[in-house]
Amino acid sequence: MACFCCVMSLHAVRVAAQSSDAGGELDAGSEDALAVVRVKNALDAANRQLDGGETIGMLRFADGSDWVRTTSGEWVRGSIDWMRDDILSFDSEEFGEVEINMRDVAEIHAARTNTYLLDDRSRLIGPAMITRETLAVQADGGVVVRPRTDLWSIVQGGGRELDYWSMALDVGLGLNRGNSNQADVNLRFAVNREGKRTLTEVDYILNLGYADRETNVSRHIVTFGNRVWLTRRWFVEPIVGQLLSDRFQDIRFRAQPAATAGVRFLDIPSKAMWDLAIGLGYQYVRLFDPFIGTKNPEHDGLTRFETRARFDFTPDVYLTFQWVTNLTYTTLGNTNHTGIAELLFEITNILYLQSTFIYLRTEEPTRRADGSFPSKNDYFLTFGVALHLG
């Protein structure tokens, strides 16, 4: 990803625009400077109409490009990819993909058609102008004006179904050769759909380990959820849960569907987000080879506690964390916990270096047929690469 400081080399364009404000002369050979002046004039005209309370029949755009003016005065030309969590992803014609915090964006001249999702989960589709205070969209029925603070996110294009989907693929590998021969593989595939009011997620994790050509880790984890936002902070999850198969924990299949409600209690744009959720659910467990007389399968009621967080240390480095505790109140020994942390270093707008740590714990594992007990705790740490699309 191109760093934001690269945008500062557009200083000459900014100076040219300021010269125009002061009545100075422009370099007639500077196409960029002339383009900036035209865009600035179009935004100023819309601002005057909005400030005067006029009804705008049609927005007048300077050209067919998207332009961003930062609070420090720089102009960037290109196209909007998306905006969410107050981060604008912008494909600059000169620098490629850049990410800009919306607090650093003074104005946007968005001549291309995009979908603008609002706080009340309504949406507006069309070209738009965004000022410090206002969002104005040239929709089918005319120009719709809303406060800029109502803007929740931007999706590129005219609301095609494909625009709401994203995916991520992580591959990690660990090798050890010498006194012992050990190989570990981690594969993670996630698919998300983010709509007007909903966020649907499916995440699959495969952990495999081999020691001296013998399998010693074989684990499949599927997490799923459907979140419905009630406000910017409060949400419900009508269905959320986990599926697990772990040969060396003697778990053939474990399912934990639940329903929860939660809150985003920490929300610092481009810095940190933290969610908490609690709810009720059901646990089904079938074992591979349980001790004689052990009930198999087992059925339990559970209370689900979940927390998720993301911390952005720099624009290119961030940490995601998820912790889930399933308290099985009908059989307390079956209570289990899952923790997943992932540290990512962005190389390009789609390619990352990543490190993933997975922690699994069951309070009282069920005895195997040979009389032994699986370990209470399982850890898995891998390093690799990740591909994020959408």
What percentage of the residues does DSSP assign to strands (E)? Answer: over 45%
- Biggest β-sheet strands, sense, barrel: 13 strands, antiparallel
SSE sequence, one letter per element: HHEEEEEEEEEEEEEEEEEEEEEE
The number of E-state strands comes to 22
Helix/sheet category:
mainly beta
Low-confidence stretches at least 5 residues in length (pLDDT < 50)? 1-29
Q: Helicity level, as a percent range? A: under 10%
Helices, by number, come to: 2
Approximate shape: elongated
CATH class of the largest domain: Mainly Beta
CATH topology of the largest domain: Porin
**Name of the CATH superfamily of the largest domain:** monomeric porin ompg
CATH hierarchy: architecture of the largest domain: Beta Barrel
Radius of gyration: 26 Å
Distance between the termini: 15 Å
Can you give the mean pLDDT?
85
How many separate structural domains? 2
How does this structure look, described?
The chain has 390 residues and is mostly beta strands. It is elongated, with a radius of gyration of 26 Å. The two termini are 15 Å apart. It has 2 domains: 4-159, no CATH class; 165-389, Beta Barrel (Porin), CATH 2.40.160.40. The protein is built from 2 helices and 22 strands. The strands form 2 sheets. Strands 10, 11, 12, 13, 14, 15, 16, 17, 18, 19, 20, 21 and 22 form a 13-stranded antiparallel β-sheet that branches. Strands 1, 2, 3, 4, 5, 6, 7, 8 and 9 form a 9-stranded antiparallel β-sheet that branches. The model is unreliable at 1-29 (pLDDT under 50). A hairpin with a 3-residue loop joins strand 16 (258-268) and strand 17 (272-287).
